[in-house]
Automatic annotation (TrEMBL):
Signal sequence, renumbered to the chain: none
Top-level taxon of origin: Bacteria
Listed Pfam families: NodA
Transmembrane segments: none
Native organism: Dactylosporangium darangshiense
CDD domains per record: NAT_SF
All residue ranges annotated as the N-acetyltransferase domain in the record: 1-155
UniProt cross-references to InterPro entries, sorted A to Z: Acyl_CoA_acyltransferase, GNAT_dom, NodA
Name of protein: N-acetyltransferase domain-containing protein
Length: 185
Protein backbone atom coordinates (compact mmCIF):
# COMPACT_ATOMS: atom_id res chain seq x y z
CA UNK A 1 0.00 0.00 0.00
CA UNK A 2 1.41 3.41 -0.93
CA UNK A 3 1.20 5.77 2.00
CA UNK A 4 1.55 9.54 1.96
CA UNK A 5 3.47 11.17 4.82
CA UNK A 6 1.61 14.21 6.18
CA UNK A 7 3.17 16.65 8.66
CA UNK A 8 1.31 19.51 10.29
CA UNK A 9 1.68 21.97 13.12
CA UNK A 10 -0.98 21.48 15.78
CA UNK A 11 -2.22 25.00 15.13
CA UNK A 12 -2.67 24.30 11.41
CA UNK A 13 -4.94 21.25 11.78
CA UNK A 14 -8.39 21.67 10.24
CA UNK A 15 -11.62 20.39 11.80
CA UNK A 16 -11.59 17.62 9.20
CA UNK A 17 -8.03 16.67 10.24
CA UNK A 18 -9.08 16.52 13.91
CA UNK A 19 -12.12 14.39 13.06
CA UNK A 20 -10.10 11.91 10.97
CA UNK A 21 -7.26 11.71 13.49
CA UNK A 22 -9.57 11.32 16.48
CA UNK A 23 -11.30 8.40 14.70
CA UNK A 24 -7.92 6.69 14.38
CA UNK A 25 -6.83 7.53 17.94
CA UNK A 26 -10.11 6.45 19.52
CA UNK A 27 -9.88 3.13 17.69
CA UNK A 28 -6.29 2.59 18.84
CA UNK A 29 -6.87 3.85 22.40
CA UNK A 30 -10.40 2.90 23.48
CA UNK A 31 -11.37 4.94 26.56
CA UNK A 32 -11.75 8.59 27.55
CA UNK A 33 -8.34 9.89 26.41
CA UNK A 34 -9.59 10.87 22.93
CA UNK A 35 -13.06 12.04 21.87
CA UNK A 36 -14.82 12.59 18.52
CA UNK A 37 -14.05 16.30 18.54
CA UNK A 38 -10.66 15.97 20.29
CA UNK A 39 -7.70 14.37 18.55
CA UNK A 40 -5.34 15.23 21.40
CA UNK A 41 -5.12 13.41 24.74
CA UNK A 42 -7.13 14.64 27.71
CA UNK A 43 -4.38 14.08 30.31
CA UNK A 44 -0.99 13.90 28.59
CA UNK A 45 1.08 16.74 27.15
CA UNK A 46 -0.43 18.50 24.15
CA UNK A 47 1.82 18.06 21.13
CA UNK A 48 3.12 20.82 18.84
CA UNK A 49 3.00 18.88 15.61
CA UNK A 50 1.69 15.67 14.05
CA UNK A 51 3.10 13.22 11.57
CA UNK A 52 0.79 10.69 10.00
CA UNK A 53 0.58 8.22 7.14
CA UNK A 54 -2.50 8.53 4.92
CA UNK A 55 -3.81 6.03 2.37
CA UNK A 56 -4.77 6.92 -1.21
CA UNK A 57 -8.16 8.23 0.04
CA UNK A 58 -6.47 10.50 2.57
CA UNK A 59 -7.55 8.39 5.57
CA UNK A 60 -4.91 8.49 8.34
CA UNK A 61 -3.78 4.95 9.25
CA UNK A 62 -0.74 5.66 11.44
CA UNK A 63 -0.07 8.71 13.61
CA UNK A 64 2.28 10.24 16.15
CA UNK A 65 2.47 13.60 17.88
CA UNK A 66 5.64 15.42 18.89
CA UNK A 67 6.54 18.29 21.18
CA UNK A 68 10.03 19.76 21.37
CA UNK A 69 11.16 20.67 24.86
CA UNK A 70 14.39 21.60 26.64
CA UNK A 71 14.74 18.89 29.27
CA UNK A 72 16.97 19.36 32.30
CA UNK A 73 19.83 16.95 32.89
CA UNK A 74 22.70 16.83 35.36
CA UNK A 75 25.04 18.06 32.59
CA UNK A 76 22.83 20.85 31.21
CA UNK A 77 19.80 21.16 28.95
CA UNK A 78 19.07 18.87 26.06
CA UNK A 79 16.56 19.52 23.26
CA UNK A 80 14.31 16.51 22.96
CA UNK A 81 11.29 15.83 20.77
CA UNK A 82 8.82 14.03 23.01
CA UNK A 83 6.82 11.54 20.99
CA UNK A 84 3.40 10.21 21.94
CA UNK A 85 -0.06 9.26 20.69
CA UNK A 86 1.60 6.60 18.53
CA UNK A 87 -1.25 4.73 16.88
CA UNK A 88 -1.86 2.46 13.93
CA UNK A 89 -5.42 1.69 12.81
CA UNK A 90 -6.34 -1.69 14.37
CA UNK A 91 -7.29 -3.01 10.92
CA UNK A 92 -3.65 -2.53 9.87
CA UNK A 93 -1.75 -3.74 12.93
CA UNK A 94 1.19 -5.96 12.10
CA UNK A 95 1.56 -4.71 8.52
CA UNK A 96 4.63 -2.54 9.06
CA UNK A 97 2.91 0.85 9.25
CA UNK A 98 4.27 1.55 12.73
CA UNK A 99 7.81 0.96 11.49
CA UNK A 100 7.15 3.13 8.41
CA UNK A 101 5.89 5.92 10.66
CA UNK A 102 9.12 5.82 12.68
CA UNK A 103 11.18 6.03 9.49
CA UNK A 104 9.15 9.11 8.52
CA UNK A 105 9.93 10.63 11.92
CA UNK A 106 13.69 10.34 11.40
CA UNK A 107 13.91 12.93 8.63
CA UNK A 108 12.05 15.43 10.83
CA UNK A 109 14.24 14.83 13.86
CA UNK A 110 17.39 15.62 11.89
CA UNK A 111 16.33 18.82 10.14
CA UNK A 112 13.52 21.29 9.52
CA UNK A 113 11.18 22.94 11.99
CA UNK A 114 10.61 19.86 14.19
CA UNK A 115 14.31 18.98 14.53
CA UNK A 116 15.72 18.10 17.95
CA UNK A 117 18.86 16.59 19.41
CA UNK A 118 17.05 13.35 20.29
CA UNK A 119 13.65 11.77 19.97
CA UNK A 120 12.28 10.72 23.38
CA UNK A 121 9.48 8.32 24.21
CA UNK A 122 8.04 6.47 27.20
CA UNK A 123 5.61 3.60 26.97
CA UNK A 124 3.88 0.66 28.60
CA UNK A 125 5.93 -2.53 28.95
CA UNK A 126 3.47 -4.23 26.58
CA UNK A 127 4.64 -2.16 23.59
CA UNK A 128 8.32 -1.74 24.50
CA UNK A 129 9.16 -4.55 22.05
CA UNK A 130 7.65 -2.56 19.18
CA UNK A 131 9.88 0.44 19.88
CA UNK A 132 12.96 -1.75 20.34
CA UNK A 133 12.33 -3.11 16.81
CA UNK A 134 11.73 0.25 15.14
CA UNK A 135 14.94 2.16 15.73
CA UNK A 136 14.48 3.26 19.34
CA UNK A 137 17.11 2.52 22.00
CA UNK A 138 16.11 1.74 25.59
CA UNK A 139 17.84 3.90 28.20
CA UNK A 140 17.95 3.48 31.98
CA UNK A 141 17.68 7.14 33.04
CA UNK A 142 15.26 8.00 35.83
CA UNK A 143 12.86 10.73 34.73
CA UNK A 144 10.88 13.49 36.44
CA UNK A 145 7.55 14.81 35.18
CA UNK A 146 4.18 16.16 36.28
CA UNK A 147 1.65 13.43 37.07
CA UNK A 148 -1.02 13.07 34.39
CA UNK A 149 -3.60 12.58 37.16
CA UNK A 150 -3.49 16.22 38.26
CA UNK A 151 -0.85 17.97 36.11
CA UNK A 152 0.81 19.41 39.23
CA UNK A 153 2.28 16.62 41.40
CA UNK A 154 5.96 16.09 40.58
CA UNK A 155 6.83 12.41 40.10
CA UNK A 156 10.23 10.83 39.72
CA UNK A 157 11.02 7.24 38.81
CA UNK A 158 11.87 4.66 36.20
CA UNK A 159 9.53 3.97 33.30
CA UNK A 160 10.31 2.24 29.99
CA UNK A 161 12.16 5.02 28.18
CA UNK A 162 13.52 5.10 24.62
CA UNK A 163 15.59 7.61 22.68
CA UNK A 164 16.38 8.03 19.01
CA UNK A 165 19.13 10.11 17.38
CA UNK A 166 18.15 13.43 15.87
CA UNK A 167 20.80 16.10 15.35
CA UNK A 168 23.13 14.42 17.85
CA UNK A 169 24.38 10.83 18.01
CA UNK A 170 23.17 8.49 20.74
CA UNK A 171 26.68 8.51 22.23
CA UNK A 172 25.87 12.09 23.36
CA UNK A 173 22.78 10.97 25.34
CA UNK A 174 23.43 12.05 28.97
CA UNK A 175 23.35 9.80 32.03
CA UNK A 176 21.32 10.53 35.16
CA UNK A 177 17.98 12.15 35.84
CA UNK A 178 16.05 13.60 32.89
CA UNK A 179 13.68 16.36 34.05
CA UNK A 180 10.87 16.65 31.49
CA UNK A 181 9.73 19.90 33.14
CA UNK A 182 6.10 19.24 32.50
CA UNK A 183 3.61 16.58 31.52
CA UNK A 184 4.99 13.48 29.79
CA UNK A 185 3.99 12.53 26.28
C1 LIG B 1 2.02 -0.53 18.88
C2 LIG B 1 1.58 -0.27 17.44
C3 LIG B 1 1.76 1.22 17.12
C4 LIG B 1 2.44 -1.12 16.50
O1 LIG B 1 2.14 -0.78 15.15
P1 LIG B 1 2.19 -1.87 13.96
O2 LIG B 1 1.98 -1.15 12.68
O3 LIG B 1 1.28 -2.99 14.30
O4 LIG B 1 3.71 -2.39 14.05
P2 LIG B 1 4.59 -2.94 12.84
O5 LIG B 1 3.75 -3.88 12.03
O6 LIG B 1 5.22 -1.81 12.11
O7 LIG B 1 5.69 -3.78 13.64
C5 LIG B 1 7.08 -3.43 13.62
C6 LIG B 1 7.81 -4.47 14.47
O8 LIG B 1 7.38 -4.37 15.84
C7 LIG B 1 6.85 -5.62 16.29
N1 LIG B 1 5.72 -5.33 17.18
C8 LIG B 1 4.56 -4.73 16.87
N2 LIG B 1 3.79 -4.60 17.98
C9 LIG B 1 4.50 -5.13 19.00
C10 LIG B 1 4.24 -5.29 20.40
N3 LIG B 1 3.10 -4.86 20.98
N4 LIG B 1 5.20 -5.88 21.15
C11 LIG B 1 6.37 -6.32 20.60
N5 LIG B 1 6.68 -6.17 19.26
C12 LIG B 1 5.73 -5.60 18.49
C13 LIG B 1 6.43 -6.34 15.02
O9 LIG B 1 6.40 -7.75 15.21
C14 LIG B 1 7.52 -5.91 14.04
O10 LIG B 1 8.69 -6.66 14.32
P3 LIG B 1 9.68 -7.18 13.13
O11 LIG B 1 10.30 -5.93 12.54
O12 LIG B 1 10.66 -8.03 13.84
O13 LIG B 1 8.80 -7.86 12.14
C15 LIG B 1 0.09 -0.69 17.23
O14 LIG B 1 -0.08 -2.02 17.66
C16 LIG B 1 -0.91 0.20 17.95
O15 LIG B 1 -1.35 1.22 17.42
N6 LIG B 1 -1.34 -0.20 19.18
C17 LIG B 1 -2.39 0.51 19.94
C18 LIG B 1 -1.92 1.85 20.44
C19 LIG B 1 -0.65 1.75 21.28
O16 LIG B 1 -0.55 0.94 22.20
N7 LIG B 1 0.32 2.64 20.97
C20 LIG B 1 1.56 2.73 21.69
C21 LIG B 1 1.40 3.64 22.84
S1 LIG B 1 2.93 3.88 23.72
Amino acid sequence: MTMRVVTAWETALSEADHAALSALLQAAFPGPEFAPDRSWPASWARKQARIWLADADGTPLAHLGIERRLAGTESGEVLIAGVGDVAVAPSHHGTGLGAELMRALDAHLRGGPFAADFGFLQCREAVAGFYARTGWTAVANPTRHLAVSDARTVREGHWPTFVRPGRRPLTDWPPGLIDLRGLPW
